[in-house]
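Researcher: Let's do a round of design. I'm pasting the structure tokens now; please hold your answer until I've finished.
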């Protein structure tokens, strides 16, 4: 499985894990507008540091599960395939 996390995946995995973009913004001490921008380019890879912050906020096991679920959801909705 590809280890890069795209902006669409980040947005979707936050939802799947039960968090909002505002929750993530508070966790990383940034504005909601910053996180909205981070999550709005769809297929652009998210910089590693923000992925790691999301992993810390959600927890390793939950993050991995949420990422898999997010990719399945995205694939179902868009037909985008993952290796």
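Researcher: That's everything. Go ahead.
Model: Designed sequence:
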């Amino acid at each position: 499985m590809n280890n890069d996390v795209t902006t669409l995946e980040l947005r979707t995995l936050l939802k799947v894990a039960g968090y909002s973009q505002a929750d993530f913004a508070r966790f990383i001490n940034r504005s909601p507008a910053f996180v909205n921008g981070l999550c709005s380019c769809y297929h652009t890879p998210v910089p590693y540091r923000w992925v790691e912050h999301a992993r810390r906020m959600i927890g390793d096991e939950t993050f991995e599960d949420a990422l898999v679920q997010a990719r399945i959801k995205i694939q179902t909705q868009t037909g985008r395939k993952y290796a």
